[in-house]
């Protein structure tokens, strides 16, 4: 496992050092981070089209980061992936994620989102990356709870359409040699194991359709995030290290009663302040020899982001397990012949 890394989306801003990739890189390196997961929706931070077209631009980015002891962990197209599939109920709210030229133009917006994803595949290849981070988008999310009863075939058609939209993108990432890690997230049609399996079936078990593992979203759904690793470890290609807590009471539970984040019983917290068992998670990841990055995604309803970032790097470093190359009791190992084996087993001929 590589790390610690940090996702820059929650830290980019208008004031130095947070207003440029170079400034963010220096800040992250000073805190002990070794990798940056870079959002691609802000051209002032990272020019996705230029990265797709220019090896020189990508080499300059890598060199600038290397001077500070950093690498790119993954590029992120969370906002663009979201726009590949939007239910009409969310059109107005998500329209701001798109380029100004295509806002209000649903067909143009979707085409723009697909083009962005295709550019991300090319840019990832030029940067020498093997994994990518994104959202799936959602067509069926308003029908999550089956009341009134869902019409037969509705969910199946939603996933068939989602697959049709993603298949050319997955093929482009396959050509680039890069895995697409979908962050399984409430609000997306891919939000748990079953929905990921539905999608995987719909895209014919595409080898590039994979998972960005984030246990915080599973805490809020009350899903067993350790058993999830046992089931899906072969498809986990990215890892957001994010904490959360779920403390139900007599007034609200999983759905939250429309409360704001600070007042919800399920909410995101800074690393170490929530309920996620990271020792067990990192142990599971080591068990299955996860070789990707461990990346802090900071979101917290209480703590200041700079404090969360400062605490995140040492937290992740403490939890990364160097996988042993031999058994702990190898010092006592002795060879034996078949005759000795049979003698030890009490087999007399």
Features of the shown structure:
alpha/beta; 349 residues; two-stranded antiparallel ribbon; globular; single chain; 8-stranded parallel beta barrel; 13 helices; TIM Barrel; 10 strands
Concise structural overview:
The protein has 349 residues and is α/β, with parallel strands linked by helices.
Oligomer: single chain
Secondary-structure arrangement, i.e. CATH architecture: Alpha-Beta Barrel
Task: Indicate the proportion of strand residues.
Answer: 5-15%
**Portion in helices:** 25-40%
Mean pLDDT: 96
Q: In the residues, how many domains can be counted?
A: 1
Topology:
Blueprint: E1 2-7, H1 21-30, E2 35-39, H2 48-53, H3 55-66, E3 71-77, H4 78-82, H5 91-94, H6 106-126, E4 131-134, H7 154-176, E5 179-183, H8 193-202, E6 209-213, H9 215-221, H10 225-232, E7 236-241, E8 243-246, E9 266-269, H11 278-287, E10 293-296, H12 305-319, H13 338-344
Parallel strand pairs: 1-2, 1-10, 2-3, 3-4, 4-5, 5-6, 6-7, 7-10
Antiparallel strand pairs: 8-9
Helix pairs in contact: 6-7, 7-8, 10-11
Describe this structure in words.
There is one protein chain. The chain has 349 residues and is of the alpha/beta class. It has one domain: TIM Barrel. Helix content is 40%, strand content 14%. The strands form two sheets. It has an eight-stranded parallel β-barrel with strand order 1-2-3-4-5-6-7-10, surrounded by four helices. Strands 8-9 form a two-stranded antiparallel sheet. β1, α1 and β2 form a beta-alpha-beta unit. α6 runs parallel beside α7.
